[in-house]
Design goal:
286 residues; alpha/beta; Rossmann fold; Alpha-Beta Plaits; 2 domains; two-stranded antiparallel ribbon; elongated
Length: 286
C-alpha cells in the first residue's frame, strides 16, 4: 500500500510506475476513491462496472404523505425541505438515520439503499488488472468503498495466482486510509521535505505503527529543502523505518504525465533507475 500524509507528494505517479514494473505479476488497486486518478496513467478499459450502494436514504411517497410535518420536525440535518407545499428529501443532506421513517404516522417514508458510487474491474494498457472506483458526488462511506476495492483486488489475485497487489491509497489519516492499510503486508510512505510533508508523514507513521505493519519510506523532491530532508531522515531512523529512495525535484515527472506515461516508461535517467531499484527493494522486503 502506497500512501502519503498529504496530497501532491507524487504518490500516485510512483504507484503507477510500480504497476508498470510489476506487469502481470501484480493486481493494481486504486484506493483513493475520493479522487481516483490512477486511470489517467494506466488507461484502463472500464470493462466491468457495478453500482456501489452503501447506507440508506429516505424517500417520501407523496400519495401517502398527509403533510403533518413530523419528519421535518425531527430531522437534525435539515434534509426535509418544503417545496411547493410538499415535503421532500434533500438527498445530499440526508444522513440515512431513519428517524423520519419511524415517526411517520402513515408510513409514507421508506428507507432505500443509497447509491454511493461506481466500482470497476479493468484491464490496463500494460495488461494487468486495475480495480478502481468513483465515489458519487457528495457521497460518504468512502471507507466502505475502499474496502470493496481492496477486497476485490485480493480476490482476483488469489484466484489467478498473482503474487502481488499494489495499491494507491488516499492521503491523510482518515477512514479511507485506515480501510486501505488494513491487511497490508507493507506500507510505502511517500513524503516531501516541506513543513506540512514531515508533519503529515509523522501522523501516517503513527497510524501504521498502531496496526503493527512494516513500512518503508520514499522522499520525493528531496533536494527542495535539505534541512527538512535531514529531519525526515532522523525521524525515519528513530522510528526504524527504512528509507528506500530519494528522488530529486525534476520536471521529467510532469513531462511523463503530460505524455500519459509513467516516469519509468518515459525516461531512462537517474529517477527512473532509482524507482526501479526501490521496486526491487519492496519485493525483497515483502
Amino acid at each position: 500500500m502506497v500512501i502519503s500524509g498529504k496530497g501532491g507528494t507524487g504518490k500516485t505517479s510512483i504507484t503507477a510506475s510500480y504497476a508498470v514494473l510489476g506487469g502481470k505479476e501484480v493486481v493494481v488497486a486504486d484506493c483513493d476513491v475520493d479522487a481516483a486518478d490512477m486511470h489517467l496513467l494506466l488507461k484502463p478499459d472500464f470493462k466491468h462496472k457495478e453500482k456501489f450502494y452503501s447506507g440508506k436514504i429516505a424517500e417520501i411517497n407523496q400519495d401517502e404523505c398527509i403533510k403533518c410535518g413530523k419528519c421535518k420536525d425531527v430531522c437534525r440535518f435539515d434534509a426535509v425541505p418544503v417545496i411547493d407545499g410538499q415535503y421532500e428529501i434533500d438527498e445530499i443532506n440526508c444522513e440515512g438515520c431513519g428517524y423520519c421513517f419511524h415517526v411517520c404516522p402513515t408510513e409514507a417514508i421508506t428507507m432505500k439503499d443509497s447509491l454511493s458510487g461506481d466500482f470497476f474491474i479493468s484491464k490496463t494498457r500494460v495488461d494487468n488488472t486495475l480495480v478502481h472506483a468513483r465515489l458519487a458526488i457528495a457521497a460518504d462511506n468512502s471507507g466502505k468503498l475502499v474496502t470493496q476495492v481492496r477486497t476485490e483486488a485480493k480476490r482476483i489475485a488469489e484466484e489467478n495466482n498473482i503474487p502481488y497487489v499494489i495499491a494507491d491509497g488516499s492521503p491523510g489519516i482518515g477512514c479511507p486510509v485506515v480501510a486501505s492499510v488494513t491487511g497490508s503486508n507493507l506500507v510505502v510512505i511517500v513524503t516531501e521535505p516541506t513543513v506540512s510533508g514531515i508533519h503529515d508523514m509523522s501522523r501516517v507513521a503513527e497510524l501504521i505503527g498502531k496496526f503493527g505493519i512494516k513500512s518503508v519510506c520514499i522522499i520525493n523532491k528531496a533536494d527542495l529543502n535539505d534541512d527538512i530532508t535531514q529531519e525526515i531522515k532522523r525521524f525515519l531512523n528513530n522510528n526504524k523505518i527504512p528509507l528506500i529512495a530519494e528522488l530529486p525535484y525534476d520536471l521529467t515527472f510532469a513531462d511523463a504525465i503530460t505524455a500519459g506515461k509513467t516516469i519509468v516508461e518515459h525516461d531512462s535517467g537517474m529517477i527512473s533507475r532509482t524507482i526501479r531499484e526501490s521496486w526491487k527493494k519492496i519485493l525483497k522486503t515483502v
